[in-house]
Amino acid sequence: KNEVEQSPQNLTAQEGEFITINCSYSVGISALHWLQQHPGGGIVSLFMLSSGKKKHGRLIATINIQEKHSSLHITASHPRDSAVYICAVRNYGGATNKLIFGTGTLLAVQP
Amino acid sequence: DTAVSQTPKYLVTQMGNDKSIKCEQNLGHDTMYWYKQDSKKFLKIMFSYNNKELIINETVPNRFSPKSPDKAHLNLHINSLELGDSAVYFCASSQLGPNADTQYFGPGTRLTVL
Question: In sequence order, what DSSP letters do the residues of A25-77 get, joined into one string?
Fold first, then answer.
């Protein structure tokens, strides 16, 4: 079993819908990242968070450290949001900054 | 200006060959990484260097040898390529520290071994 699990694996939504992608992890962490990988392949870091909630435009990321769970929400989804969304956690302790990745959620937003 | 660049973008080669992928970052970061993304899009750390020193080596076959001539460059050399090495390889960089943890990824190198 992977140390970082995401759900759903695949998600199809209609333009304008509110989207939630979930991430659960089983290791101690110092930070959690949400990444976006577009069909062209490039990977962009969306959020890094260790507690609470962060918002950037239509994207919102939350984390519950006690429950070892994070969610990524997209409000008013748009076809350009179609991408793979990847959750990654930074192992607690040490200075190695090692990330452990989830398997990704493939999101398709249809017009 | 490109923050993290990789060359080549595509690499097609025969089994048994030796090949290199180059990575450069102009962000002034201390730490650089190599990741492998398999056909199922799963990313996994291979190596990490901090100020030219190897700090992570994730049980990668010794056919893979990273080299960091300076902290802005991290190259990946692969000997005796195998079919299973076909993947997309991503270079990334970050500034170490709990509040400076964001990783910046290169565009990836798609390696196909025939």
Answer: E-S-EEEEEEEEE-TT--EEEEEEESSEEEEETTEEEEEETTTTEEEEEESS-
Smallest Cβ–Cβ distance between B105 and the set A30, A42, A98 belongs to A42
Average pLDDT along chain B: 90
Interface residue B112 vs chain A (CB under 8 A): no
Q: Are A23 and A71 in contact (CB under 8 A)?
A: yes
- Torsional sign, CA B23, B35, A105, A18: negative
pLDDT at B97 over 60: no
pLDDT of residue B95: 84
Q: Considering only the beta carbons, identify the residue of B40, B48, B110 that sits closest to A98.
A: B48
Contact of B48 with chain A, judged by CB distance below 8 Å, is answered with yes
Summarize the confidence of residues B42-48 as an average pLDDT. 90
How is A13-31 classified by DSSP, letter by letter?
EETT--EEEEEEE-S-EEE
- Is A45's CB within 8 Å of B104's CB? yes
Nearest by Cα to B37 from A69, A9, A43, A93: A43
Give the mean pLDDT per block of 10 residues along chain A (111 residues).
91 97 92 90 90 95 96 97 94 69 95 94
Burial letters B48-84, b for 16+ CB under 10 A, else e: bbbeeeebbeeebeeebebebeebbbbbbebeebeee
